Amino acid sequence: MSEAPLLRLENLSKRFGGLKAVSDVSLSFGEGEIVGLIGSNGAGKTTLVNLVTGHLKPTAGRVTFAGRDVTGAPPYRLARLGLLRTFQVVQPFAQLPARDNVAAAALFAGAAGDMAAARRAADAALERLGIAHVADRLPTQVTLAERKRLELAKSLAAKPKMLFLDEVNAGLNSAEIDGVLDMIRSIAAEGVTIVVIEHLMKVVRGLCTRLVVLHQGALLADGPTDAVARDPKVVDAYLGKRGAAMLEAAR
Ligand SMILES: Nc1ncnc2c1ncn2[C@@H]1O[C@H](COP(=O)(O)OP(=O)(O)OP(=O)(O)O)[C@@H](O)[C@H]1O
Ligand SMILES: [Mg+2]
After folding, report:
1. What Cα–Cα distance (Å) separates residue 216 from each residue in 45, 96, 164, 237?
2. What is the mean pLDDT of residues 130-150?
3. What's the confidence (pLDDT) of residue 119?
4. To test the ligand 1 pocket, which listed residue (45, 59, 198) has its Cβ within 8 A of the most ligand atoms?
5. Ligand 2 centre distance from Cα of residue 85 (Å)
6. Of 26, 31, 27, 34, the residue nearest 2 (C-alpha)
7. pLDDT-based confidence at 228, cuts 50/70/90?
8. What is the pLDDT of residue 169?
9. Domains identified in the chain, total number
């Protein structure tokens, strides 16, 4: 990478008591990349995202975003710089309609100056994600697929430069997943760097040109999707022969 990376992690670690959930991970991400972050249950994927987006403080290491040291910075500050994430377990404000959930995200990230502007940004994001019809509904009154899109709308209204998507396809059917993939591609096409945390090989293969594999908290592999999918270390530790074949078949 000749230009300075958008996000750089240096020797990032997180301990929970005796458990090294993330162990000495160094990685760089460039502008407009779509990267898959994969690994078994408990490999440390969500913890890594939490460290980078300010939801957990690292035990050691450094995070640099757009040239600034943001290690340990709170989520609202990172959101204002354009570093956003969705949650594996979606967490909307249950008492607010969808539009205001998205508007709140825009205000939190400083992407709108007042509530009227935030609601306009919210309507635009809901429209873009094909869920304008849920604007006045409470999050409990929408389907899982719509709730996942609502999460994406919140990120989009916050004007991201970089977006971590933590299993946004989990629980969706094949047609719903295809719809989400199109949206992710269209967001990336605007230059937003996207990291998708995924267990679904169809998604990984369909979206990502680069894969990062975590295993027991440590970086196991990082490279072009094809090469990583064939890496014997990755096949042994995570994909298995069946997973590798699925990744191959999903081309
Ligand atoms: N707040 C916490 N306190 C203690 N241990 C934690 C905490 N959060 C995560 N862990 C542990 O850290 C390890 C990594 O968890 P993490 O949630 O990051 O994995 P993951 O790769 O996202 O897994 P999954 O694919 O199941 O979502 C696991 O052993 C988990 O039990
Ligand atoms: Mg997780």
Report:
1. 10, 38, 20, 10
2. 94
3. 97
4. 45
5. 13
6. 31
7. very high
8. 85
9. 2
Total Cβ atoms within 10 A of residue 121: 23
**Of the candidates 134, 159, 184, which is a domain's last residue?**
159
What confidence score (pLDDT) does residue 1 get? 47
Residue pair 103/112 in contact (Cβ under 8 Å)? The answer is yes
DSSP for 212-227, written as a single string: EEEETTEEEEEEEHHH
Q: What is the pLDDT of residues 154-187, one digit of tens each?
A: 999 999 999 999 888 888 898 989 888 999 998 9
Range of the domain at 140: 91-159
Neighbouring CB atoms inside 10 A of 26's CB total 13
Roughly how many angstroms between the first and final C-alpha of the chain, as a whole number?
26
* Residue 158, token pair as written in the block: 């916050």
User: What's the length of the chain?
Assistant: 251
If asked whether residues 105 and 129 sit together in one domain, one would say: yes
Distance CA(25)–CA(184), nearest Å, equals 26
Measured from CB, residues less than 6 Å from any atom of ligand 1 are 16, 19, 21, 39, 41-47, 88
